[in-house]
Records
---
Amino acid sequence: MQRYSLLNLARNALRGNKDWRPAWRTPTPKPGYEVVVIGGGGHGLATAYYLAREHGIRNVAVLEKGWIGGGNSGRNTQVCRSNYFYPASAAFYDHSLKLYEGLSRELNFNIMLSQRGVLSLAHSEHELEINRRWANATLMSGVDSEILTAADIKKLVPRINLESRYPVLGGFIQRRGGISRHDAVVWGYARAANALGVDIIQNCEVTGFQTRGGRVSGVSTSQGIIAADRIVMSVAGHSSVLAQRAGLRVPITTMALQAMVTEPIKPALDTILVSGAIHAYVSQSDRGEIVIGGAADAYNSYAQRGGLPVLQGTIAAVLELFPSFSRLRLMRQWAGMVDITPDTTPIMGLTPVEGLYINCGWGTGGFKAIPGGGHTMADTVAHNRPHPLITHFGLNRFERGALIDEGAAAGVAH
Ligand code: FAD
Ligand code: PYC
């Protein structure tokens, strides 16, 4: 892999930047691979990377129907945190956050992790009490969390209007939470996986599965049949459709989740604010844009665009908190198709079809989970049993009723 370093930057600049090689190859698919990963989002690429890096399984292809990162991984609002309510979730997401903390160095790619804190607001006494329980639950799982008064919040976020229609009474913060650049996470994993021999094949849609003797033997794709003993599905909002082609029913509902950015302004907000009650969250990107998101659209859809009512409601909520932002012009708005489970917890692990593994159900919160998801899925595929951190996230939990209801901790949008 051509290393990115100050020395290399200077050397290449002096040579007119002619010697940089593409960050990954554009291979034609081989007739078969040891492992095929379907979906070139963050989870698929991270799985391929850790298969090669940690398990020596390098005969791997990632098949992406469009371009890598063109799904939710390149459309999200970049929030990373691990302050989940239940111990199983907190342990998993903290594993992911810890991997994020070392990722720029590991991938030799600046993922621009900025741990500026994720602050959840409470707008009523009832919500304040729930926030206290939530903060204490995360502390008991060994995850940092701190309860803040309204005065603490005003000090941290001077522009906030505490006396809005929904007054701010307090909240809690995970100071290790933050944002990292979503494209960089995708490209960093792709470049590192490619360097270890993984084939990343774009414009290659998987249309069905080949089976032999009750187990998978390959996939049919828009570029022909590709054989594989082990297949991982990481296709987010398309999970139920694709799983059906393997004869599986997965409890995924697909909805559009939208976000938007304003024109860039000088530094105005250096933490991430989340309000479950008014269904909005807001941060400022490194380019200066105010990044705004809210609830998922209220209906099922496979279209990568959202409707105006949610947009309008979200903007109204943010302007209650920050009246001065009403002067800003909106620059862009977009949406992704999120894969929502009944308990807002992901589905990870083995499936009833031998050799077929699934990683989905991240809904509105799987960006923070990319390193952890890739790391544990690779281990699961390599050993054909769930990694200890994901045993609670199996598809079979819906048969047993062993749900992990993280609805309240799923950011705001669910
Ligand atoms: P994706 O990145 O969607 O990748 C799946 C890939 O599979 C896609 O590229 C798709 O083209 C491909 N694919 C589908 N079908 C096929 C097929 N048949 N053959 C081949 N390829 C196929 N999470 C957070 O943690 N923090 C946030 O702040 C946050 N904000 C969000 C804001 C928005 C607006 C949205 C939409 C999502 C947000 N999320 C957030 C959620 C997060 O983006 C996703 O959970 C995460 O990116 C999922 O990653 P993935 O790799 O599973 O899916
Ligand atoms: O999961 O933290 C989250 C989140 C924030 C915004 C969207 N998802």
Note: The domain at 6-78+182-250+343-410 is CATH 3.50.50.60 (FAD/NAD(P)-binding domain).
---
Amino acid sequence: MMLKRYSAIALFWIAFSSVIATGAQTSPFSAEAKQKAESLLKQMTLDEKVGQLNESSGLVIPGLAKEKPDDLIAKGGVGSILWQMDVKEINRLQHIAVEKSRLHIPIIFGFDVIHGYRTVFPVPLAMASSWDPSVEEQAQHLAAQDARAAGIDWTFTPMVDIARDARWGRIVEGAGEDPVLGSAMAQAQVRGFQGPKLGQDSVLVTVKHFAGYGAADGGRDYDSSYVPEELLRNVYLVPFHAAVQAGAGGIMSAYMDLNDVPASGNHWLLTDVLRKDWGFQGIVLSDALAVGNLVTHGYASGGEDAAYKAITAGLNMDMASLTYSQNLAKVVKDGRVSEAYIDQMVLPILEAKFDLGLFDHPYVDEASVDAVLNRPEGIALERKLAGRSMVLLRNENRTLPLSKDLKKIAIIGPLADAAHDIEGGWTVEGLFGKGSKSHPVTVLAGIRNRLGTDAQITLVAGPQPSKVYTSMLDQFTGAKSTPPSTPQETAEWIAKAKAAAADADLVVAVMGETASMSSEASSRASLDLPGIQEQMLEAIVGVGKPVVLVLENGRPLDIHWASEHVPAILEAWYPGTQGGDAVTDVLFGDVNPGGKLPVSWPSASGVEPLYYNHNLTHDPEDRPSFTSRYWDVSSKPLYPFGYGLSYTAFKFSNLHLSKNRMSVSDGNEVSVDVTNTGSIAGDAVAQIYIHQRYGSASRPVRELKGFERVLLQAGETKTLRFPLGTEQLHFWSPQSKTWVVEPSDFDVWAGGDSTASLHAEFKTTQ
Ligand code: NOJ
């Protein structure tokens, strides 16, 4: 039956290709934890089991929780608590669970520790720009120790959603558009949080949002995603699978409809792919209220149907909607779901609690929390990792690095001294309006720290840009919508900025988006510099002094004017607590920038979605007849995926393959020399791309298959090697619906970004 759907050509490819089996996960939990969990399960009533499948809100917030969970905890009705960061309250609630509930099962406390706890690291998109997985691993390891000391055992991190559309606000939380880079960053975060094995100072991860959330229609957060299976398998699911293979203990189901079936009730996703194909044996947690919202989507008829659809889809734990709590026991008693199935769903939750040591050490040592959170090594690490995450986009006439003898600097822009914004969104202590306790260093403060009191530093901030429509999260962060500047206010700010620029030797413009502009429920239609920033920038450049633009933002922005008129542009993203010092390290040349873009940078808002690994068209745009597929702007990116400058220069040469011809089941290796041709040391990121020229499906023009960030002294050459075996060459064929390596001809490129020209080729045969 199936075969009828294949064309003769497809049959040829399928017959001679190699079908690849992909690896299954071994349990993320220990055999000892399993044994203990199974014996505990035998003592539990159905209600107690359902209780373990419920994650209640620790905060009483409209729309989330009407009352504190105390009574439910005492009845054994709460397996986990989210959104409680007050250690005293964590201990109070834990005492109820451990002392008052019949079986004394401790609660597991979960929260979004996305990029640090008190010490806030660069946002995930920034850390991905380092192209150095150890940046993520080190940051998340420190965050895990901090979180655990503060009573958080479970983080809702890493977000591994592929994002091909910069309008989508949550692009800031992920690693960008590429599955290979995304997988490396996902695995590094799993290692950072969970360590070699779960224990008393590690934190359980939740890989989110499963799956296709980043493909929201129009980049509008929460909107439906329509992603065909081949695109899911070849792109969107890849980092999730990588995280599962690295031992991730948790997965969070996404909010939106995936191909018309809400992800939180999607049996294909949560059972067929995740458990059957990948062998996942951990916990699937819903996103907040998502089980209840199966009714809102128009997928479930009411609470009972929602509980039935979610549990049978394979979702273990209901975050905050209380739908399981209120309906699941009835669904079991009615015989629609067996108690044995419920046991399977409870098992990994108990296993996690045993492995994390919660049964032996359920409470937080309140006296030691601040000492752990304020460890000076966190601050030093943050500054170093922030420096590794920055991307130098433009540097005409060697404007950077700056001279350390500068005496008069004008610092312009609303982000120059915005302490909250330099840390970005989703900060643990900043989220609920309590404010950060981390003392962030702004760019203004960083430059002051560097130049001391001898230098004249003038700040003209200009008006803070604001969103037209605020979101539910803004009520927690305190971000407000303010009216746009009037023409008169705008003229006054511009006059001040021009005067400051005229009186300075150099201008540093610090512009971009406020932290709340790149976040959940913070998508936007335009990618321009919000507010009057573009006008201020153009005005100060008109003054004629050298200008350096430092961008603080969580997504690519439309900077096409700046890319032609501002001599130096440094993408700092939201660099975290030590951000201002780290920016200054790069501006003054103590750190040679080595970050590269994890996203294709658009030349205009209207070119989104934009990604380098698209397919060839019937008439590719590099032919003379079609230089672009738009008539008003180039469809080429302003800066390509993988791009970033350095204060030195690199040359790639001697691209070799160990075999020019190989069988589809064989391995190959590519090697390339990278030379630092400049006069100072610097980091290069070697990138390997391939293209399969023909086969059972059209393949992307280029796909990243290997990368390595490497430090080279002036004049130094290193030879780097990358495997090109079945793991790199396989893809999910939409025709055979299997993973295949096909007989074909392949192009290979090596270089410093996705437009690399150093080329070789090889052939695969049956
Ligand atoms: C909703 C977000 O989509 C998710 O990423 C987050 O982990 C939960 N809220 C809990 O804070």
Note: Residues 379-604 form a domain with the Rossmann fold fold (CATH 3.40.50.1700).
